[in-house]
Amino acid sequence: MSTDLLRPPRTTRRPPAVSRPTALVDVGALRANTCAVVRATRTPVMAVVKADGYGHGALALARAALAGGASALGVTSIAEAVLLRHAGIDVPVLSWLNSPAADFGDALRARVDVAVPSPGHLRAVVDAARRTGTTATIHLHADIGMSRDGAEEETWGRLCAEAGAAEAAGDVVVRGLMGHLGCADRAGRPTATADLDRFERATRVARSAGLSPTVRHLGGTDAALHDPRARLDMCRVGAGLVGIAPVGVPVGPAATLRPALTLLAPVVGVREAAAGRRVGYGDAHVLARATRLALLPVGYADGIPRITTGRASVLLHGHRCPVVGLVSMDQVVVDVGALPVAAGDVAVVLGPGDDGEPTARDWAGWARTIEHEIVTGIGPRVERHHVEEDH
Ligand SMILES: *Cc1c(COP(=O)(O)O)cnc(C)c1O
């Protein structure tokens, strides 16, 4: 039994009643976080709503971010972009990370801007523009150091020249240049400076090819909040909007950025268990003393990382109760000691931390990962409810 169970409760507030695993998404927090990022960067913000809005719901995040001052939206796939259009969202939407075989026609018909990282992609976009009788709005994507997406320095000149020809032919308009900073977590890091230099060189090459992009953009939350040099004409921000702060920036109830997601799970059953009993698969956990065990219907299929076994806890009756035994696919067992927990009570699995519940940052620490992986990992069986709270 954990020592927390012997202390006074961290809160006497009861979580909302739910009958199945539920993620409450605090729309007010999404909006307030966007406002905070816009204020801090004094730069137009593209809200990145990929991966279903970092697990918070793409549409909900998009709408809240636009209400909070974002002026454009970013996603990886064309399908995610088209979904935003079908929901009636009318601001500029940029999609990156598409295969050259992607249906760029779908993007153009939905007035979705596309990132172009290679001459092959450019040819596919030009074909789609001709087929659909439209002009494609594109952002040329340069690799400035991550060796991931974007054109390498050796092909950048050719990409710019071919984009210039396509622009002259009326098939595309080169609206933007993009790169991505992979080491932006501290201002003035030498790697960030080298990457910024590479982006400046790429810009000069583009201009000398006759291109005149009006929106240059470089990085995500870390770059936007830590390094003013990386802001340029627009910041592409996702994590910060859902309350994931860069290293060194506080996050939580009293901080500027507030985690927006609370994961709740109802107690399915409670049992007494004698000392020496095994809990869960294998013999990973044997009870040292008699206690009471509560069963929660969330497991690794719902985004509870199995690697957290032996470290994780959840909030029940205002106390942190340890998760005991291996995390199963659909369930976890929690040691509730002498707490009067009953079936139907609700556990707070993670949240902003207001009442002492674990945060996504805590889960990330237990899982040796980052908060992004925790919130985007919450599975499709978990129902999302969007709620409006004042901040
Ligand atoms: C995801 C992503 C972003 C947003 O990054 P955050 O750190 O979540 O703000 C920006 N740019 C690109 C290319 C991305 O893939």
Automatic annotation (TrEMBL):
This is Alanine racemase. It holds the Pfam family Ala_racemase_C. The active site is at K50 (proton acceptor), Y281 (proton acceptor). GO terms for cellular component: cytosol. Its cofactor is pyridoxal 5'-phosphate. Keywords: Isomerase, Pyridoxal phosphate. The lineage of its organism: Bacteria, Bacillati, Actinomycetota, Actinomycetes, Micrococcales. Pathway: Amino-acid biosynthesis; D-alanine biosynthesis; D-alanine from L-alanine: step 1/1. Belongs to the alanine racemase family. GO terms for biological process: D-alanine biosynthetic process; peptidoglycan biosynthetic process. It comes from the Bacteria. Residues 260-387 form the Alanine racemase C-terminal domain. The keyword Iron-sulfur does not apply.
